[in-house]
Amino acid sequence: MRLWVCIALLSVVLCVSADRPRIFQGMVRAGQFVRDAAGGARDMYRAYKDMREANYKGADKYFHARGNYDAARRGPGGAWAAKVISDIREGWQSRVSGRGAEDTRQDQEANEWGRRGGDPNRYRPKGLPSKY
């Protein structure tokens, strides 16, 4: 009887420590992507909220870069969310705001810079409060 109990316990230990099936690993990766994307969307929203609160002339590029930087640091899902949100925002603003193609190009450059891991402070204007 003791032999069978030992065999059963050994089997349980081996099964628990075995590699997970591929489908399970894929589901875990998909879940992580979704969590990263949701966190990235929150990062983008926080940068937008800070930009509105600061209301500082010439600081929009900094907040674009910072939001994309924070989101991309979360992983592939965060980088994906940052790209989608940035592209939608710039597409909408280029049609509505009337700031022109040059401003949109500069915003997209700041977005890309942040997503690639570049320091957002490159776009930080002098005099912006240290809170941001």
TrEMBL record:
Any single GO CC term annotated in Swiss-Prot or TrEMBL for this entry:
high-density lipoprotein particle
| Region named Disordered | 95-132
Q: Could you say which residues form the signal peptide?
A: 1-18
Listed A to Z, the keywords are: Acute phase, HDL, Signal
What InterPro entries does the entry give? Serum_amyloid_A (IPR000096), Synovial_Prolif_Regulator (IPR052464)
Query: For this chain's UniProt record, which GO biological process terms are given?
Result: acute-phase response
- Gene3D superfamilies, alphabetized: Serum amyloid A protein (1.10.132.110)
Task: Give residue spans, biased composition: Basic and acidic residues.
Answer: 100-122
Functional description taken from the UniProt entry: Major acute phase reactant. Apolipoprotein of the HDL complex.
The Swiss-Prot or TrEMBL record describes its family as follows: Belongs to the SAA family.
- Output this protein's name: Serum amyloid A protein
Give the organism the record lists: Loxia leucoptera (White-winged crossbill)
Name the lineage: Eukaryota, Metazoa, Chordata, Craniata, Vertebrata
